[in-house]
């Protein structure tokens, strides 16, 4: 069996809408959290009933679901972990992601048959740690983001073949080591290690001399100060061949707090890239349009993280904003009678150029005309939030439910 046969595209889901996006656009596995014990307190996350339904839907498509319990819980939270695990077992979760060694021991106690993945928050940077976690019952290690390809290959060479290696290949990066940040708790009393990060690394900073109160000195000659802690986003889509050769089994996409549009587009891009890699590992090269798909979501400037050594260009000092050149204009509900029936996400109008993105396919470019409301009446634009409307099916293709119509921002 080739190392490429087991490539897993692992997508994030912060709620049921994002989960459906990951499922529709080709994820092999999806990771998500509940209201507690997860490192993303901001998204809606999943209730017990939502989790059970999500796992059932995923398993019908042979997609796995991993539950995050990767916070560093305090004493008063431990008593609730037994029920948390019992419900995970009842929902038939495929694996849990943990960072705390105490929780690792409790998973083995309360759910002895549960597969265990050690979170990136554990800070795994060498083969000794990986082997010891394997001996303690871990089936997978999620490596620290601060490792190079050479270091990852070294870990792979000195660990059991049945220990999976997972690594982030796309998404936001943290200025602190593997997300172990204290800034947020120190500045605004929101604990990043329990999913409450306020992202102070994205804020602008000045220097102030103690005897010159109110006089702020920028670190650089810029009136907006400096975003000295602001990391670029990671993007490895054009380097997946080298990532897999180094021994990474699971290609992880960051973004449980991101939109359904983000999850759809990025999952789709990495799904198609992984399939290209599997088909011809020795000649991995993406078509230009696919390489550019990751530019059509809201993102910061990209870099390759630590994969090629110390990242000289991983910080972005100009500002903390996102690059956003496209908007999701609508989501397809169905195709029939020569028309595409949609639900609006952002306003657009007759005459706009748009792209329709369906799972596993290159987008189609169209010029919008003949907009009609849900009653079939002609309209000039989609001016009402979440309104239903239709457009002609310009090329006669059948676009599946949740295909996306997007427009370039002017």
Write the layout of secondary structure elements.
Elements: E1 8-12, H1 16-24, E2 29-32, H2 48-60, E3 64-69, H3 75-78, H4 81-90, E4 95-98, H5 101-110, E5 115-118, H6 127-135, E6 140-142, H7 149-157, E7 164-172, H8 183-188, E8 207-208, E9 216-217, E10 233-235, H9 240-245, E11 250-253, H10 260-279, H11 288-291, E12 302-303, E13 326-336, E14 339-344, E15 353-357, E16 364-367, E17 372-373, E18 388-392, E19 404-408
Helix pairs in contact: 1-10, 4-5
Give a nutshell description of this structure.
24% of the residues lie in helices and 21% in strands.
What does this structure look like?
α1 packs parallel to α10 and α4 (81-90) crosses α5 (101-110). The termini are far apart. The protein has helices at residues 16-24, 48-60, 75-78, 81-90, 101-110, 127-135, 149-157, 183-188, 240-245, 260-279, 288-291; strands at 8-12, 29-32, 64-69, 95-98, 115-118, 140-142, 164-172, 207-208, 216-217, 233-235, 250-253, 302-303, 326-336, 339-344, 353-357, 364-367, 372-373, 388-392, 404-408. It folds into 3 domains: 3-176 and 233-303, TIM Barrel; 177-217, no CATH class; 326-408, Beta Barrel (Elongation Factor Tu (Ef-tu), domain 3). The strands form 3 sheets. It has an 8-stranded parallel barrel with strand order 1-2-3-4-5-6-7-11, surrounded by 5 helices. The chain has a 7-stranded antiparallel beta sheet with strand order 16-15-19-13-14-18-17, with no helix packed on it. The protein contains 11 helices and 19 strands.
């Amino acid at each position: 069996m080739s190392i490429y046969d087991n490539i897993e595209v692992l997508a994030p889901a912060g709620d049921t809408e994002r989960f459906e996006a990951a499922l529709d656009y080709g994820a092999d596995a999806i990771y998500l959290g509940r209201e507690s014990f997860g490192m993303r307190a901001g998204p809606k996350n999943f209730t017990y009933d939502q989790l059970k339904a999500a796992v059932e839907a995923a398993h019908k498509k042979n997609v796995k679901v991993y539950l995050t319990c990767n916070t560093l819980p305090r004493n008063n939270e431990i008593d609730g972990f037994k029920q948390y695990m019992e419900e995970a077992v009842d929902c038939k979760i495929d694996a849990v992601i943990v960072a705390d060694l105490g929780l690792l021991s409790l998973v083995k106690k309360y759910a002895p048959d549960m597969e265990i993945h050690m979170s990136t928050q554990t800070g795994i940077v060498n083969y000794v740690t990986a082997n010891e976690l394997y001996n303690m019952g871990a089936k997978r290690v999620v490596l620290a983001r601060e490792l190079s390809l050479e270091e990852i290959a070294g870990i792979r060479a000195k660990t059991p073949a049945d220990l999976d290696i997972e690594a982030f290949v796309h998404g936001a990066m943290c200025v602190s080591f593997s997300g172990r940040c204290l800034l947020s708790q120190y500045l605004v009393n929101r604990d990043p290690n329990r999913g409450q990060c306020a992202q102070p690394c994205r804020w602008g900073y000045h220097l102030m001399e103690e005897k010159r109160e109110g006089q702020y000195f920028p670190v650089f000659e810029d009136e907006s100060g400096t975003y000295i802690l602001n990391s670029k986003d990671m993007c490895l889509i054009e380097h997946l061949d080298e990532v897999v050769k180094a021994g990474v089994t699971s290609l992880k996409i960051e973004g449980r707090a991101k939109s359904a549009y983000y999850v759809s587009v990025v999952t789709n891009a990495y799904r198609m890239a992984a399939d290209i890699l599997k088909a011809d590992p020795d000649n991995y090269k993406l078509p230009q349009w696919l390489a550019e798909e990751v530019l059509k979501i809201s993102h910061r400037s990209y870099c390759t993280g630590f994969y090629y050594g110390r990242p000289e260009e991983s910080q972005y000092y100009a500002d903390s904003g996102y690059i956003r050149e496209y908007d999701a204009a609508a989501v397809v509900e169905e195709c029939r009678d020569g028309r595409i029936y949609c639900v609006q996400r952002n306003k657009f109008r007759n005459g706009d150029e748009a792209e329709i993105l369906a799972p596993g396919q290159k987008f189609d470019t169209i010029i919008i005309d003949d907009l009609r409301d849900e009653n079939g009446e002609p309209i000039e634009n989609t001016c009402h939030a979440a309104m239903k409307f239709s457009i002609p099916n310009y090329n006669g293709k059948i676009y599946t439910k949740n295909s996306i119509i997007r427009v370039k921002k002017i």
